[in-house]
Amino acid sequence: MAHPRDISSDTAEKQGAEGLPVGELRVVATPIGNLADLTPRAREALATADVIAAEDTRHTSQLLRHLGIDRPMLSLHDHNEMARIPALLAQLKAGACIALVSDAGTPLVSDPGSALVAAAVAAGVRVTPLPGASACLAALCVAGLPADRFAFEGFLPAKTAARRAALEALAREPRTLVFYEAPHRIVEALADAAQAFGADRLAVVARELTKLHETLYRGTLGELAARAPAEPNLARGEMVLLVHGYRTAGGDDLPAEALRWLRLLLPHLAPSRAAAVVAEGLGLRRQAVYALALSLASGTGDDESVE
Ligand code: SAM
Fold first, then answer.
1. pLDDT (tens digit, 9 = 90+) per residue, 10-47?
2. What are the tens digits of pLDDT across the range 214-225?
3. Which CATH class is domain 134-246?
4. Which of 15, 169, 215, 271 is deepest in the core (most CB within 10 A)?
5. Which atom of ligand 1 is nearest to the CA of 33?
């Protein structure tokens, strides 16, 4: 049930235990394209903040102009975050409300802010989430890939060898994989992913979400890698790459722990018993675990480490 709370007039919560003023760090999500995605709470949090700490003040001032909000701003980006923290903490401890925003989406998610939030938490300052858009979740909820468990990997390394190594390390990850990728690297990323995960693995490139030219490219990694070099739209805009998780020999999306436990138990228990123990212990479908146990016991299952 929604619990409307007037952020600005919450004076009771601005008093600490000893009656001292207590500030608040507001972590505010902003739209990833469509300005209508800014929540009313986010708007109020920005409008009533003493200071807005923005990844790029010029970028955020456009959003604030659109919203008719005029608040003091300072920059907080990857290169000055550590240096900014002492002064921001002092302001928070003196009772200031500071709103943290990035250029788009949710701060901290492949964006600055983690160190400031950690410092605020360590200092006992209240940290309030103002949830909203994030490209990761926006892409995941339209990809058509399993979304109950997923692994967000942020940006892949830019250098070829490191990118390939990172992808190889994820080849047996059973959860759906979500990557942020730059348009000038998507062709290479798709080719490397097809190599590391196999050309048959299902994948989606979610481009320009919530914007005019929102496009979803779906197919196998082999198809997408073949199509990408001739697709001019993939060379521009913002995009998320999602890849179906590794399927075990049982054909079900079982977590890595299931495989690990089965390997431990199978030398000592019959496949049906081992499957029953693992299914119950991990809350999985017994039939799927049994299929994997059988394939492992008969030597046809995957026998390599998942991590
Ligand atoms: N913190 C942001 C968030 O919560 O979504 C992400 C910031 S990260 C620096 C920017 C990356 O997010 C882009 O390079 C792209 O991979 C992805 N992205 C941002 N907006 C997007 C959009 N509208 N459509 C698709 N991907 C987007």
1. 434 455 555 556 799 999 999 999 999 999 999 999 99
2. 999 999 999 999
3. alpha beta
4. 271
5. 23
